[in-house]
Amino acid sequence: MTQAQHFSVSILLSVYNAEETIDRTLESLLAQTFQDFSIVVINDSSRDNTEVHLERWQAIFGQERFTLLRNEKNLGLTRSLNRGLATIVTPYTARIDADDWWHPTKLERQISFLEAHADYGLIGCSYINIFGRNEKVVRPPETDQLIKQKIFGYNPFAHSTVVFRTGLVQSVSGYDEHIYFGQDYDLWLKLLLKTKFYNIPEVLCYRTGDAGISQERQNDQIRQYMRTQWKYLQLYRYPFWHYFFLVRPILVLASPEWLKRLKRYFFL
Known about the structure:
This protein is an alpha/beta fold. It folds into 2 domains: 9-208, Spore Coat Polysaccharide Biosynthesis Protein SpsA, Chain A (Alpha-Beta Complex); 215-265. The chain has 10 helices and 9 strands. Helix 7 runs parallel beside helix 8 and helix 8 packs antiparallel against helix 9 (247-254). The radius of gyration is 18 Å and the shape is globular.
């Protein structure tokens, strides 16, 4: 099944055991001032009542606008996203995770920018990270020049903030299915020399953090981040001093568990 082509944007999300958060996410899509979109949802073999919620929302949006794909077994985020991406034929794709939500004008602002700037293929925005009652505004670099200066130091796009040109990402075969964590960061670096990047300097997205993430998973994420840095530094033959960007994640790996938890809690 493919998405109807007459829409401008497909909103792509993979869902696993999200019964407590998915309604808020989809409510934020229904509230968008820009409504020329369809939705592609992959239920990654959820074990809770996520499916019930998704079927209710499919009835609200209608089957033409809401494609529900079901994995017979849990495939993980990367493979699920690629499965959904393969069905999309709209000019633009927007990503959102099942525990995040958008400001009502997010899509309108981003699509207006992309329509006016044909040389830009990926756009994000500022956002708020939320841990319970704690919130932190994150303002990533705005311009293409600044983003590309800083991209080996940290990920300049939160996954739920981005809209990209569908054909561009499909042309590089989407997400790398060998990567379980940080598949988005790898994709941005894969696109680094192929397009221009931008972040709208306004808070248009709200992201829910996981304060209970295990130390083992944190370490796995950091190691994957370093592997991705190393791969593209070598691929693009960056000068040796860029390899100093590897020092920071090494120091984080060497930090005691309490410091890692504190860092993640306050999104430093």
